[in-house]
Amino acid sequence: MSVELFHLKIGYSYLQLDGYWGRIAELVLNRSLLWREEEFRAADAVWFEDIRVMRPFSGEIPAGGALIEGGWDHEHCEICTEKISPQTNPVGFFAEPRHWICKACYHRFVLARSLDFIADSQQGGL
After folding, report:
1. What is the domain-level CATH number for residue 109?
2. So what's the pLDDT on residue 34?
């Protein structure tokens, strides 16, 4: 994923982000992501009993997998981890390939291109 970068200047300090915060900052700052408000709907999933993992169904069932109809029943906001599901919080913002952001984080951080979620998390706000 490419991020629109600003020009660095000599004599200025810049925040360096680790992989976790950097990945989230990319979602917030990447202007090439096309976010759209969308209602989350459960989708089919594939369950792997031997490793106790469920994955979204991609059109074929790999060896060792079992199809679970409607098994992919929620996502989590990639910023605050709020659950996005038909029962609890049905509408969020989606961008390809599989990014979900809750409405509150979309308006507060993505629209504003704000990295304040970093400070909020360190103060117990997220």
Report:
1. 3.30.60
2. 96
